[in-house]
Specification:
This protein has about 450 residues and is mainly alpha-helical. The chain has helices spanning about 1-35, 40-75, 80-115, 120-135, 140-155, 160-180, 190-215, 230-260, 265-300, 305-340, 345-380, 385-405, 410-435. The longest helix is centred in the N-terminal third of the chain and has 37 residues, at about 40-75. The mean pLDDT is about 85.
């Protein structure tokens, strides 16, 4: 009983700040779009396009981030401080180099990229400015993601949350001043939004690094890299590559599905956009719970407490299912009052109201997938959710969307049923594997 209470307390102390942090990061992007909407629709479209590409770049960064989270949490659990510092140094070095390389690409090859994407001429100027400034300094985002992940792996999730609050405030003030030319500063529009974003990230990077050094790492990270610990880089890649690969596969699958949706007309495409942006707030909790559970599981595995890790998994599963069901049911019930605030098109509203009810079961499956996948990664077995994910997201979600949605003519509702089947069937496979305990014989680190 005491173990269960302790696990609940630890899970809550990690999940809540992670949830708030993710929510604030989403709010940051929302405020950029909201303020730029006062400038022009083209400004919003240009920044939206740039951010979509930069999101794909972030997935490359996630290779180092996800791997570092798992490896660091296991070394924390094993109380191996030296190996933890080495892993931190390797993760920061890897992502710094990757961030610099992408920055050089965006600074010098933005015209080539925009031409490749066939960007409309009216968007080129603003998209080019945003790419060169924000993309050119993407190393800041790369380091911020890594530092936040490492702090969370040390049970210091409050610090990234506090930093997110500060970044939101500075970004809003910076946007107001630089987009609209306030406080004696020039009116820069999209360029102002880009500068504000970069300055906010720079502040975040400094604060996160200070928190890590002050609270956890007292020795020199730089000295820990000599001689270079290639074994730590190998451990990071072992976890990061399948986990990041699953995210890339999902992104590519969704891109193809958007192509299918586009065939159904502008109203259906608009409906999907509304649905995705509203539903995103439902599975934010599952993302936070998955990250929090993975960190605790990693620490337990580092202490070789596999039975306790299984108990934590079952506890997290109950929370994930109950919260996801409650939130999605609530959304379906209040949707008739929410949708008219978004659009007056009755066809779009009717379509969305139907899909919100289908989405209730989907969110349960998605929560199980996120939780199970993150925890299997935390025990050093990310390959299973990657393989299962690729098979079902392409075999059911993508292919099924075309067959049921386009071929048989069930449209977006048919596609959403395929998404539901993908998430739920995948969830069953992943959870059965977790409960089987077959991962228990695998070892990522040695104490």
């Amino acid at each position: 009983m005491n173990t269960k209470i302790s696990l609940k307390k630890q899970l809550r102390s990690l999940t809540l700040p992670i949830f708030i942090e993710i929510l604030l990061i989403m709010f940051l992007g929302f405020m950029d779009i909201l303020m730029l909407s006062k400038v022009s629709d083209n400004a919003v479209a240009a920044v939206g396009l740039a951010n979509q590409i930069l999101l794909l770049v972030n997935m490359v960064f996630m290779l180092g981030v996800l791997g570092a989270t798992v490896v660091c949490s296991q070394y924390i659990g094993a109380k191996n401080e030296h190996a933890f510092v080495q892993t931190t140094g390797v993760a920061l070095t890897y992502n710094f180099i990757v961030g610099i390389c992408f920055g050089i690409f965006f600074i010098f090859y933005t015209p080539f990229l925009l031409d490749l994407l066939k960007v409309k001429i009216e968007l080129v100027a603003n998209a080019s400015i945003y790419f060169k400034i924000v993309g050119g300094l993407s190393v800041l985002m790369c380091l911020n993601l890594t530092l936040s992940a490492i702090l969370r792996s040390c049970n210091l999730a409050n610090y990234p949350m506090y930093v997110s609050v500060i970044v939101n405030i500075t970004n809003i003030i910076g946007n107001y001043a630089l987009i609209f030319g306030k406080f004696g500063l020039p009116e820069l529009g999209v360029q102002g939004a880009a500068i504000s974003t970069v300055c906010s990230r720079c502040i975040a990077c400094a604060l996160l690094f200070y928190a890590l050094k002050k609270q956890k790492i007292k020795t020199s990270i730089w000295k820990s890299l000599f001689p270079f610990p290639f074994d730590k880089l190998q451990q990071i890649f072992k976890i990061g590559m399948p986990a990041a690969g699953e995210m890339v596969s999902y992104s590519l699958s969704q891109t193809l599905i958007v192509y299918f949706v586009n065939k159904l007309g502008n109203d259906v495409l608009a409906a999907r956009t509304y649905l995705v942006n509203i539903i995103m707030f439902i599975f934010l909790f599952a993302l936070a719970l998955g990250q929090g559970s993975a960190i605790l599981v990693g620490q337990l595995i580092g202490r070789e407490k596999r039975d306790t890790a299984l108990k934590l998994g079952r506890l997290s599963l109950k929370v994930a299912i109950s919260v996801s069901f409650t939130l999605s049911l609530f959304l379906a019930l209040v949707a008739p009052w929410i949708m008219p605030l978004m659009t007056k098109n009755q066809d779009i509203i009717a379509l969305c109201l139907t899909i919100f009810w289908v989405d209730i079961l989907l969110e349960i499956g998605r929560a199980v997938n996120i939780l199970g996948g993150r925890m299997l990664g935390a025990v050093g077995n990310p390959e299973f959710p990657f393989v299962v994910g690729v098979i079902f997201m392409w075999g059911i979600a993508t292919l099924g969307s075309y067959i049921l949605g386009i071929w048989f003519g069930y449209g977006l509702v048919g596609m959403w049923i395929c998404f539901l089947l993908d998430e739920c069937i995948r969830g069953v496979f992943i959870w059965k594997y977790w409960e089987s305990g077959k991962w228990a014989s695998r070892r990522l680190i040695t104490n």
